[in-house]
Structures
1.
Amino acid sequence: MFLREYHRTKDGKRHTYFALVESQQTERGPRQRIVAQLGGLTRDQQRSWRRTAIFHAAVRLGREGLFA
């Protein structure tokens, strides 16, 4: 899992939005699936979501003991 950053210009102002994305291997090759649209995030919120994504990726690989 990782955070994907999106940019949009509205009324001359640039806005940044985030989505939590999961990579999956399919027969047609690697694909990304959006798990959650997070919207605009502060730096602290970005850091928290990145840590959450890293934790869930580690649990998925069977390394949850690293975070105990």
2.
Amino acid sequence: MEIMEKILKAKNLVLADLRSCYKDEGILASEVNFTDFWARDTFWASLGLINSGKDLEKVRSSLELFLRYQRKDGKIPRKICLDYNGLKYLGIKIRRKNPRPIYTSPIKAFFSMDDNLLLVIALSEYIKKTKDEKFAEKYFSQIEKALEFYQNNNLVRNELLYEIGLGNWMDTIFKKGFVLYTNCLWQKAVQELEEVAKEFNFSVNFHLPKSQEIFAKIQKFFWLEKENFFTDSVSGKGKQQKYFDLAGNVLAILFEIADEKQAELILEKIETIKSKEDIFYPTVYPRYPFWKINPLTFLFGIQNYQNGNSWSWIEILLAVSKIKNGKSEEAKETLENISGIILENGHIHETYFLDGRPFDHLLWKSAVPFAWSAGLFLWAVSELVGETRKF
């Protein structure tokens, strides 16, 4: 089977996977483990749909679903629960009479940081894609509030976002300070708001750092000159944690936070963190020490769930980043590897061992099908065959 034939065949499977997660107005994160409406899963999947031009009505209804649950202070839910999660993970599914929004991170004292940011990015991209001015007018004040939330809760420091606990997509890893993944999204969300305001002549009614100011601070605080990548996180006192976070560095390339030279250096670095025997890349290199891991994961034997295994959504965005930097052949190779695994298993999984096997432990299995990665795969293939614009 030729490479593009394999990739396009996988695309058809992935589209079916994604549509199997459509439920009512929203998009379930998965049909296994995560049978709720999760913000980050919904919005990443939506970005894939927007950039591939697929199912835009589902994107619209999903955005409106989360906006309906936005609190007065601007916070949107981390997830909207459809059943009782504690029982579900024991194999007992009982549907709630009414959906229940959850606004905090797994540690209830702290916020989940990326939900509002991804809402702003996805909604702004939807507006720019559809040119729907009425939709923009209806919801612009709500995406303003979504960003104002960070200011009002003292989460903006030195123009960057500061977090504590299990606040971003790596919600089994304790992080404190300025986190690369979160601040790449912060820079992009503010930039998106600026672009929508300019395009439709809206006024922004509160003070935000400028996207260029955030860009400059990310460059100043996160770039490691000797190591040639952006550090995983920085403490409030400016101390850099020198872990190579794959997701954060890929987003830095994707959102053009990395300049052309930095992007080249990061892509070179990425090739050094994978062994020749492996198919996929680890989420972080080197692995985090045990004391940064949520101790509950050790009880389930999944302490490496986000600490060295591969996550399909990052592999896919790596391919998009390669295309963005004129490396279409390398991107094709990356998508061929992923497509082979998809065709072998018949679905796209959430998490993989580095040798390509879906993550499978006695007490926890990789979610499948996985909407987040399915949507992004559609985007990557569309970029590869030139069906849509660059992000």
